Amino acid sequence: xxxxxxxxxxxxxxxxxxxxxxGALDGFFSAGEVRxxxxxxxxxxxxxxxxxxxxxxxxxxxxxxRLDHVDQDQAARWxxxxxxxxxxxxxxxxxxxxxxxxxxxxxRVMAQVYTAITEVTGCRTVVDSSKRPSYALVVRHLPGSExxxxxxxxxxxxxxxxxxxRRHTGASGTVVRQHGAVDATLRWDLLNxxxxxxxxxxxxxxxxxxxxxxxxxxxxxAVDQVAALVDGPPASTAFVDERTVRxxxxxxxxxxxxxxxxxxVVVQADEQWSSGQRAVDRWLASAVASPLMWRYGYPLRxx
Length: 303
Fold this sequence. Notes:
Number of strands: 7
CATH architecture: 3-Layer(aba) Sandwich
Order of helices and strands: EHEHHHHHEHEHHEHHEEHH
Strand content: 5-15%
CATH superfamily: P-loop containing nucleotide triphosphate hydrolases
Distance between the termini: 48 Å
Number of domains: 1
């Protein structure tokens, strides 16, 4: 039975390097943001992390060959209808898939996707860094698979700084839109509250919460903790030392360009925001996120 290890949280929270470290474990495969497979990855001919267009990638071409019976346009329509954070309340209370045909069809197709990934890669656990709570609830009840969830949280001021200053081309082929401090942090609130709802739905035996800052402080320990949630304590490790992981060649979909790295990858904190962020942006992000910052253990005042 395939296992899906789903990473929840706000974008720019370190999920790329976190998924890389997990994907280096025996039996784990870091698939990137699987929720965008049908749209925009396949509709736009996006590239895999290996550099090849996804239909030509040695991994994804084999996965897609096992899904050649799937109507890709229909799957994309189901994806657009279901994977939407405004649908989260409905997804949380939904118990009768037959009453929502798009959800039933989408779950059936995505269960086949994860099964095909495990068959092609030989791995049992697929690390999916899609982050969206709405898609997490799709994965939560996939037929024929087991789902586990990690809520990765990062200081909202660091996220706001990254969304304002850093640019890269997304899976749609266009530059990912930058966001101001208020916009970025409101989204931080929304996605982290949604992630908490998913964790409550999944239960403590299938989920955990992890701060980015704790992960980069002790990456090997954090990866072992997550691996134990899914499959018991790992028999071996991909870490060369406490901070350096041997990352395999990546075939992750979408996300940060850092997913293209392979070989020795040093896990270390990105603290540029602490000196580079404008005072007004720091104040705005702190004000908008203050209730959740206290909950996650972030001080309102920084040095």
